[in-house]
Amino acid sequence: MNRAVLGATLANQRMNQTTSKKEAPHLLHALHSAASVIHTPLQASLSLGFEKDGVTTRLTERNHYGPLLVQKPFYPEGKEVCHVVIVHPPGGVAGGDELSISARVGASASAQITTPGASKWYKANGHVSHQQISIDVQAGGVLEWVPQETIFYDNADVIVDHRVNLEKDAVYIGCEILCFGRTAYGESFNNGQIRQRTRILRDGKMIWLEQIRLQGGSSAMKDSLALSGKTVCATLILTGKTLPQPLIDLARAETENISKGIGQIGISQFKSIVVIRYLGNSSEVARHVMLCAWSLFRPEILGRAAIVPRMWNT
User: Fold this and answer.
1) In angstroms, what CA-CA distances link 265 with 234, 259, 277?
2) Given this model, what pLDDT does residue 226 score?
3) What mean pLDDT is predicted for residues 184-211?
4) Domain match, 9 and 110 both
């Protein structure tokens, strides 16, 4: 038990024995307030390694510290692709928590990483939360990083750094769906701060760099160059191959049909990087848009049919 909670519990027991009914509520409130200011940040790390063994990709490294781990690997599309689910038992990230995730994919190995549900970043309470993601994919390897939604509660203060190193013809596919405030509960992201940086390097050279810094309630939340007053933004990045224009045109038509003009969608190709964006107010629509684009582009890039991650259907 946390020392502050234990101390409050013992003091509460003594209080019940020695104070009057009239005094007890005031003392109890003071004790709970004193306990709540005690903050013990959580630190957790997870290191994963994947290697090709014949035709099978195996999870060969699985080291963790703290409440961050993976379930048993599974193979819903055959032995070539190893699927794992990252589990964070606390269910959310509190102010001051620090998470570190690293994944290494060996030559010609293929892996997909997802999460069992939405990630939640709680109110900061004066503490900054951090998450560092480091991905290394060797020649001919493939890593698909497809976590479910990320929800930033009002007053969250978060720094996320996402770095990807690719060798030669290695492939990285990454998806992020960001939700600002719990709109289902009438909450907006009026206070707090989100700082996120994504870097992708190939053979040591930067091929993609994106940084955002959003202040809750700021003009950027409504500016047309940022969120345009929307509460959900999603990005799908695919590297490794230049896609034919007819396929991109098809993806634009189908994703626009999903959003039905409610959200904004953009698909751009920069040499060997394709970026799909969604901006709107529905995480469900964002999910369908991302899955639609991924299902069209994955067979072209990886030569494999698109199988929706099992966790996304639960």
Assistant:
1) 10, 8, 5
2) 78
3) 93
4) no
Domain co-membership, 127 together with 14: no
* C-alpha span between 11 and 29 (Å, rounded): 12
Q: Based on the domain organization, do 26 and 54 belong to the same domain?
A: no
Quote the CA–CA distance of 214 and 287 in Å, as a whole number. 22
Q: What is the pLDDT of residues 245-295, one digit of tens each?
A: 999 999 999 999 998 878 899 999 988 899 999 999 999 999 999 999 999
Beta strand extents in the chain (DSSP E only): 43-53, 56-65, 69-70, 81-87, 98-105, 110-114, 119-121, 129-137, 142-145, 150-152, 157-166, 171-180, 193-202, 205-215, 232-239, 264-270, 273-280
In whole angstroms, what is the distance from residue 34 CA to residue 154 CA?
23
Pull the structure tokens for residue 263.
């959200």
Q: Which domain holds residue 290?
A: 43-313
pTM: 0.85
- The rounded distance, in Å, linking the Cα atoms of 241 and 298 is 11
Q: How far is CA 132 from CA 40, 43, 174, 206, 283, in A?
A: 19, 12, 15, 18, 24
The residue written with tokens 């019940």 in the block is: 16
Cα–Cα distance, 248 to 82 (Å, whole number): 28
